[in-house]
Amino acid sequence: MTYPIGGDTDPRFASVRDVFAQLLDSGAETGAGLAVTYDGRPVLDVFGGWRDASRERPWTSDTLVNTFSVSKPVAALCVLLLVDRGRLGLDDPVARHWPEFTAGDVTVRHVLAHTAGLPCFPVPRPATALADWKQLAADLGESSPQWAPGTMAAEHALTYGHLAGELVRRVDGRPLGQFLAEEIAGPWRLDLGFGLGAVDQERCANLRYGDPAWPRTTLGPPGSWRARALGNPDGCLDLAVLNSPLWRGSEIPAVNLHATAGGVCRLYAGLLAGGVLDGVRLVSPDTVAEATAVQYAGPDVLLERPVRWTLGMQLDDDGSWGMGGIGGSVGYADPTRGYAFAYVTSHLAGFDRVDALADAVNHVIG
Predict the structure, then answer these.
(1) Which residues, 6+ apart, have CB-to-CB distance to 5 below 8 Å?
(2) pLDDT means over runs of 10, the chain (366 residues)
């Protein structure tokens, strides 16, 4: 099977494109996009494979795909834009802006740093509830933290976006998807969004399992934090839900950002440049510095490993900051080497592909 590959590559980064092609040729990848900016300019924006399991629709430059937790820094940035504008403070109690929110000790900072103690929706809901923002926000507003806010971390796998999004709605009045489109994606020309309309849904790649066991292994043991967080509402690992108009058209900002690799990469390029992209400043350098600073370092009980959480992202040992999503998509910036990187995939598997591509980029840059 021949895998179509398109896009642009700076000759210096041809070896990275070769690794991308090898992933497709080997079957480790079946449909994806990859973008890199280095020293403030795009050096790689390639795509390859297929948008569908039957391999009838090639991946194109404007193919959108669900990126899971790559969504979270985007949702956080919407809140941070309001912080930057003085509309709310990081250490404000959430209840100051969301009066029905009963957990009085939870601050905006706790929400963005995954330390609010609200990693699970408290009321069992069916998949149809994913389209009911009002119900899920109300469930969170009435719930109690599982620990003293700020003392422990657990990735707020599904709740993160509703906590951030309801803050934006209460302070600004617009839903998160509209705020993102008008205040961030539009000014920075980012091809990404929450709650897609019919036309954009036609551009989406269908997710597929790289391993039939992926839903079970991703969910984790029954009763674990991971199972509790990812299992409610129902359907978040089910292809019938993930590839449906319900999922694509709803706003589930913790996990359903649909994006091109170029869209995610441009966002990180703007943050890497201190909040300005193509001459358009969205946030101040001070806000970017706070957003990328460690807010919590220690064990994450959902991820079951040590994590350094910033405001929406993870800080890695090499100094890079960003976020990956279950299934293999990722966006990050490496301030030491001076590049931004994004990989988006419909082939739900591990991060070996990202590791191979990142190693290739680092080898070129040195």
Answers:
(1) 17, 20, 21, 24, 46, 47, 48
(2) 86 98 96 97 98 95 98 98 98 98 97 98 97 98 97 98 98 98 98 98 98 92 96 97 98 98 98 98 98 98 97 97 98 98 98 98 97
Torsion, CA 209, CA 66, CA 350, CA 297, rounded to 10: -140
Type of residue numbered 331: G
- In 3-state terms, what secondary structure has residue 199? helix
Here the CATH number for the domain that contains residue 158 is: 3.40.710.10
Q: What's the pLDDT score for residue 2?
A: 66
User: Which amino acid, residue 172?
Assistant: D
Whole-number Å distance between alpha carbons of 339 and 352: 20
pLDDT score at 276: 98
pTM: 0.97
Question: How high is the pLDDT of residue 1?
Answer: 58
| CB-count exposure of residue 328 (10 Å: 0-12, 13-18, 19+) | buried
Sheet holding 321-324, edge to edge: 5-9, 41-49, 31-38, 339-345, 330-334, 321-324, 314-315, 305-309, 296-300
Q: Which pairs count as long-range contacts for 332-335, CB under 8 Å and 24+ apart, including other chains?
A: 332/268, 333/268, 333/269, 333/271, 333/272, 335/272
How far is residue 76 from each of residues 200, 204, 245, 246, 297, measured CA to CA in Å?
Answer: 23, 24, 25, 23, 18
Note down the domain range covering 308: 65-365
Number of domains in the chain: 1
CB contact set of 238 (below 8 Å; sequence gap of 6+): 127, 215
Contacts of residue 13, defined as CB under 8 A and 6 or more positions apart, other chains included, come to 36, 38, 43, 44, 361, 364
CA nearest to 329, candidates 205, 220, 227: 205
Q: Which two tokens stand for residue 327?
A: 């299934």
345 lies in some domain: yes
Q: Is there a domain that residue 185 lies in?
A: yes
Distances (CA, A) of 49 to 21, 27, 52: 9, 10, 9
* Dihedral, CA of residue 97, residue 101, residue 103 and residue 105, to nearest 10: 0
Is 32 inside any structural domain? Answer: no
Residue 56 forms part of a structural domain: no
Please say whether the dihedral angle defined by the alpha carbons of residues 298, 303, 305 and 306, taken in this order, is positive or negative.
Answer: negative
